Model the fold of this input.
Amino acid sequence: MNKVTLACAVCSSRNYSTNKNVSTNSTRLEVRKYCKTCGKHTLHRETK
Done:
């Protein structure tokens, strides 16, 4: 399990962190979550 950070695709603010199992999922994580900066649900992508 690796700790990854999720950043908003619209405003690029890093709002969330989560764990990801790299051995079963090697692609970048993309989740729709609420962004406090934008004030709405947006796509959040895994950052380095």
